[in-house]
Amino acid sequence: MTAMHGAGSRLAWSAGLIGATTAVSRVLGLVRDQLLAYYFGASHDMDAYNVAFRVPNLLRDLFAEGAMSAAFVPAFTRRLTTAGRAEAWRLGNLVLNTLAAVTLVLVLLGMIFARPLVTVFAQDYARVPGKLELAVSLARVMFPFLTLVALAAACMGMLNSLRRFFVPALSPTLFNVGTILTVVVLVPMFSAHGIRPIYAVGIGTLIGGIGQVVVQWPLLRREGFRYRPVLDFSDAGLREVLFLMGPGMIGLAAVQINVFVNLLLATSQGPGAISWLSYAFRLVYLPIGLFGLSVATAAVPTLSAQAAREDVASMRTTLSTGLRMMLILNVPATVGLIVLAEPIVALLFERGSFTPADTAATAAALVFYAPGLIGYSAVKLAVPSFYALQDSRTPVAVSASTVAVNLALNVGLAGVLGYRGLALGTGLSAILNATVLLWLLRRRLGGLDGRRVATALVKVLAASAVMGVATWAIAYWLEAAIPGTSAGVRLVRVAGGIGAGIASLALAARALRIAEFGQAVRAVASRLGGLRRTA
d(Cα 11, Cα 516) in Å, to the nearest integer? Predict the structure, then answer.
């Protein structure tokens, strides 16, 4: 029992550190989105940017932050555990150089064939004069982002394997800072000189990608890493990474088929639909990053080391602890997003070119996306667990199956609910994906401490229901008591609703004796207090 408590405390400590630093990045991400909403709203230019960025982002998911990350961290950790740092650094160099070579070729091909690629994603844009051409041009500007984010993901994998979480978790901040500064400086300048202002966002994307690599490099060097321009495809570790990436890329390609169909369906829903879905998912991604990705990032190196030692019992403990922590944090976040969807969207985005109609449409998408939050977060823990066990085929098979379900759901729901159906279908599919993966992991590991996980889920559902009622009641009362649409009034109403929700959740968690809730809160609070010292 003491060992389990110690494992939980270490995981909570690391997740709290990652969550605290991720919070900074996500807040800046919201500032970035606020700027984009202010300058561009849900306009044709913003739709064009979202589609243009989707093309290199698709390849990024395949090569950088998807299959590569899931395959690289277990392989690097295994090399580190069994052969020492010198050999681990050699593997790191091999992966970096392979990624650079492959992605640079893809960047070149992407820039050459940008028009047919963008046309495949958004053929309806040709109906609006200049919209398709703008999306193609923006895609060519942003394609090099693929190489930059691939290198950043490799650096992040090495540092996380060494239990260095602060700088990697903070590195996405540089992406947001780069975009924010570029937009603030270049949008007025471009407007004054007759250049389409949306190009400033594309340039900011590249500057942000450079920042993600630059901020991690000094810490890597401090840990002992030295770059070497070497390639050796006979290296067992590199072959392992490539071997695990292969099935992973097939699975992610199946996911991208789903993204492709969703994009086609969204572009057929009329102007603004893609932007509404994009803004809404950004808000859902905030708790995913804070409470889902932070737990998964902290757990994966531990799981990889345990798998390398063939310590199945410890893997069960780590997974069970991670799952319970995710539930404790993500279920209340889901309820909060649903209850406060419209006030939050209005507070963050409704100004400038972003109209009240955009607020209502984005909030509707957010409500339908929110249930998938738990699924998205659990998948980020489950998939790397299979990779740690050197099994990349199972998550691929599950992913392909859930993609088929997702496509059927989205096509059917889009006909009934429009663009909102795309959000709901995607969220439901994420929950299905997570459920199947965890069931298979349970069989593989001989259990996941299911009784404790189920008990934690029932308790957190009850506490979240109390929180939801209290949040809705206070938000409704404040709306009547403090009318108006100024930013200050909206801030008071949202803050009051959130404050009531947190207080009621804490009381309910205490009454229900949800131990993991206090553990998670203490971990985040301690990391926030010691952030500067830890860095």
Answer: 11
- pLDDT confidence band for 363 (50 / 70 / 90): very high
What are the backbone dihedrals phi and psi of residue 474, each rounded to the nearest 5 degrees, phi first? -70, -40
User: Whole-angstrom Cα distance, residue 9 to residue 158?
Assistant: 23
Q: How many CB atoms lie within 10 A of CB 204?
A: 27
Cα gap 96→228, rounded to integer Å: 10
Please report, as a single letter, which amino acid is at residue 216.
Answer: Q
Beta carbons within 8 Å of 453's beta carbon, 6+ residues apart: 320, 323, 324, 327
Considering only 149-163, 390-404, 516-530, which range has the smallest mean pLDDT? 516-530
360/341 Cα distance (integer angstroms): 9
Alpha carbon distance, N-terminus to C-terminus of the chain = 32
User: Residue 524 and residue 466: Cα distance in Å, rounded?
Assistant: 23
CB 73 within 8 Å of CB 153: no
Q: Which of these, 108, 122, 107, lies nearest to 47 by C-alpha position?
A: 122
8 A C-beta contact, residue 475 and residue 497: yes
Query: What pLDDT shows up at residue 534?
Result: 40
Q: How far apart are CA 464 and CA 455, in angstroms?
A: 14
Q: Which of 161, 173, 170, 172 is nearest to 70 (CA)?
A: 161
**Cβ-contact 420, 272 below 8 angstroms:** no
For the chain, which residues make up each domain, given as ranges?
2-534
Q: How far apart are CA 22 and CA 291, in angstroms?
A: 9
Task: Retrieve residue 118's tokens.
Answer: 């963008």
**pLDDT by residue (tens digit) across 83-106?**
888 888 999 999 899 889 988 998
Q: Is the dihedral of CA 65, 70, 71, 77 positive or negative?
A: positive
Residue 39 phi/psi, 5-degree rounding, is -80, -35
Residue 254: how many CA atoms within 13 Å on its side-chain side? 18
Asked whether the beta carbons of 308 and 237 are under 8 A apart, the reply is no
Across the chain, mean pLDDT equals: 80
